[in-house]
Automatic annotation (TrEMBL):
Name of the protein described by the UniProt record: 1,4-dihydroxy-2-naphthoyl-CoA hydrolase
Organism encoding this protein: Desulfacinum infernum DSM 9756
GO molecular function per UniProt: fatty acyl-CoA hydrolase activity
Entry keyword set: Hydrolase
UniProt keyword Hydrolase present: yes
One Pfam family here: 4HBT_2
Amino acid sequence: MVKPPAHAPEKSLKVAIPVRFGDTDPYGVVYFASYFRYCHHGIEELLRHVGCPPHEYFRNADRGFGLPIVGASCDFLRPVRYGDELNLFVSVLRLGARSVTFGFHFYLQGSPECVGRGQASMTAIDRTWRSCQLPEELRNGLEPYLASEAVDR
Ligand SMILES: CC(C)(COP(=O)(O)OP(=O)(O)OC[C@H]1O[C@@H](n2cnc3c(N)ncnc32)[C@H](O)[C@@H]1OP(=O)(O)O)[C@@H](O)C(=O)NCCC(=O)NCCSC(=O)c1cc(O)c2ccccc2c1O
């Protein structure tokens, strides 16, 4: 964990996001859907960081569970442009019995001003697409990134 800017959660993972050609609208401003891609990239990086690499973890047929996104939102506070470099701070806002809600704060590199923020929730499902308990190793890995001490089991 690194020390985040003043109003980002204390317990977060910093992920560098270069704004690419193809992320923006015709005016060169980052398109809203791109932020959701960045958010999912942040989730993947956090999972990798806590020992659940998504390219293996999401495709583990033996374990038989999935983690679909069930809700997501973003606020876009300042325009960000092609060529900008963002720092994304990923945290855990809520760790439920069957779901986890991630928090996202975006900053331009070298600036303390938050340019965007959001959240997304993933629910654990079994092979029959019914919600089930979050896998223990995922819960244990994510707990240190929880913004508050509240954990539901
Ligand atoms: C997933 C569902 C089957 C859940 O339905 P259910 O009726 O069981 O939901 P409950 O109301 O009982 O809640 C269970 C659990 O989830 C939390 N929750 C539910 N809705 C929300 C919400 N909108 N926001 C936040 N949290 C929510 C609820 O609080 C409970 O948690 P607790 O911890 O409190 O117990 C059903 O919702 C469903 O089928 N939804 C459709 C999902 C979908 O199609 N999503 C589209 C995108 S899929 C996607 O993006 C995706 C991303 C990934 O990274 C994946 C990784 C790995 C596998 C798949 C992925 C994936 O598909």
